[in-house]
Amino acid sequence: MQFWIGVKNVKTKEEFVMKELQKKVEYFFIDKESELYESAIDLRYREFYEKFNRTRESIFDEIEDKSLKIVACIDNKVIGHARLFIDNSIGEITQVVVEQNYRSLNIGANIVKKLIEEGKKQSVEKICLDARIYAIDFYRKLGFKTNGEIFESKKSGLPHIRMEVYL
Ligand SMILES: CC(C)(COP(=O)(O)OP(=O)(O)OC[C@H]1O[C@@H](n2cnc3c(N)ncnc32)[C@H](O)[C@@H]1OP(=O)(O)O)[C@@H](O)C(=O)NCCC(=O)NCCS
Prior knowledge:
GO terms for molecular function: N-acetyltransferase activity. This protein is α+β, with helices and mostly antiparallel strands. It is built from four helices and eight strands; from the N terminus they run H-E-H-E-E-E-H-E-H-E-E-E. Strands 1, 2, 3, 4, 5, 6, 7 and 8 form an eight-stranded mixed β-sheet that branches. The mean pLDDT is 93. The structure holds coenzyme A.
């Protein structure tokens, strides 16, 4: 049965499934005490550490405890994460990741938007980040502009570029 036919603004089964998933996504600001924290660490480890032979311990860098952390969840499963560190009215976004199977559902954009909103509340002047080259357009759509030359990340060896947005 083509159960999605007649649903408003939905033309295909894929679109229907996508919209149903999007409805289920919840966003939470968390700290280390949260029951979601370990799952967020797992997700970050898989994307940013394991692939580059970095230890799980190196997740706990000098800004980890001081950063505001946001997760996206479906049915209490962490499927997205990012963090914002604020110092002297300048924000730094790091560790933006969405679980592979849940990409292209606007989850990454929503996570970053929520951190930008939070930055505004805290009178942050600008937010910076080091973007992987392949993600430049993702950040451009959120208002970020490139600043400087492409460089190789010391941690992953991947080409990156500095980006920033004034709030
Ligand atoms: C980059 C990442 C966080 C994007 O998350 P996502 O949830 O798939 O992205 P969204 O669905 O929110 O995309 C929002 C918009 O950006 C676009 N976009 C997303 N990723 C993109 C990419 N790699 N290149 C170009 N455009 C991209 C989407 O098409 C969408 O455009 P639209 O609004 O016109 O439809 C995700 O691909 C990821 O986790 N990648 C691996 C980790 C990583 O590289 N993180 C960034 C490190 S700097």
